[in-house]
Design a protein that fits this description.
It is a single chain. The protein is mainly beta and 320 residues long. The chain contains 4 helices and 25 strands.
Length: 320
């Protein structure tokens, strides 16, 4: 498994520049040319053996201590070259993000908002920022991490309490996310302003809104009493930090049938963070909700949460 951050290597070399600071003489410092290189670490795989770490587009921003832009570069590859003066700098990176070539100050970059639709299964938006003193030719490492949160339906277990349910066919039909954040800033804390499938009960609308990153059709076959099914399917969304009272969470919803009746099992996720994985193990003990937007009564739910890096998991063990 990969570390929770992808490491970007910046090797200083003699090359051209994309955009450089003005008034270098007034600011002082020797001009140096930097070749920023981002290695693609394809260690973690998703559906279809697509890399979660692919870098198809790179933007580098070099700011001075006054916050003004000193250099900017863009490349549709994993490396680029640009020129700036030596001295104390703040270096920011955006990966697989829309073009932000009009940024002139660090404060402007920090207010930029990313849309979840900018992501794809083989192209995740990432960001990173660090302070560095540029003295001469050398190497600068800028860590970047994905903006998305990852949700995994690891297992579904049949533990029906009533004999009549144990004798009926229990089948999982799909899994999806509701009340999922649609936007977030590239840097710092942010309260989402737009949502996917908030309060939506119509399945055709949910599927249309969710797309392939927040919805998967499944066919578990019959899950017999006392047995588990391990789909291992991955979903993604922007993090929902929750309100101060812990209400209005993002839900992972499992659609299943008991006999011929469709039920929904919404699992409320904890306060979410970017670049974290939430691993859900669902144990079904009784029929769920009639509609996907109605949570199961809290008295019927017991869950345990453990927060760990993306390279490990956030465990959500839920009994419904």
């Amino acid at each position: 498994m990969m570390n929770s951050k992808v490491m970007m290597m910046a090797a200083l070399a003699v090359c051209g520049c994309a955009r450089m600071e003005e008034g270098t003489a007034q600011r002082g410092g020797e001009m140096v040319e930097l070749n920023f290189k981002v290695p693609c670490q394809k260690t973690t795989k998703v559906i279809g053996s697509v890399s979660e770490d692919a870098v198809d587009d790179l933007q580098i921003f070099v700011f001075g201590v006054d916050g003004q832009i000193h250099a900017y570069g863009h490349s549709e590859a994993d490396q680029l070259t640009l020129t700036c003066s030596t001295g104390d700098k703040r270096i920011a990176a955006l990966v697989n993000a829309p073009l932000a070539d009009t940024v002139s100050h660090e404060s402007s970059l920090r207010t930029l908002v990313s849309k979840f639709s900018d992501n794809a299964l083989d192209r995740f938006v990432m960001s990173g920022i660090k302070d560095e003193t540029i003295e001469s030719t050398g190497t600068v490492t800028v860590p970047v991490s994905r903006l998305v949160s990852k949700v995994v339906l690891s297992s579904v277990t049949n533990e029906f309490e009533l004999e009549q349910h144990r004798e009926m066919d229990f089948t999982v039909k799909s899994v999806f996310l509701t009340n999922a954040a649609e936007d977030r800033q590239y840097f710092g804390a942010y309260s989402p302003s737009r949502w996917y499938n908030k309060g939506v009960s119509d399945m055709s609308q949910i599927i249309s809104n969710a797309g392939d990153m927040m919805y998967q059709a499944l066919d578990s076959g019959k899950i017999g009493y006392g047995t588990s099914w391990q789909p291992g399917c991955f979903l993604y969304c922007y993090p929902n930090p929750l309100s101060p009272d812990g209400t209005d969470p993002t839900y992972l919803v499992v659609e299943a049938t008991i006999g011929t009746t469709v039920y929904y099992y919404p699992v409320d996720l904890p306060s979410m963070e970017s670049n974290k994985c939430y691993n859900v193990n669902l144990t079904v003990c009784r029929p769920g909700s009639a509609t996907p937007d109605v949570p199961v009564e809290k008295s019927d739910i017991v869950f345990k949460v453990e927060v760990q890096p993306w390279s490990e998991n956030v465990a959500v063990d839920e009994f419904i």
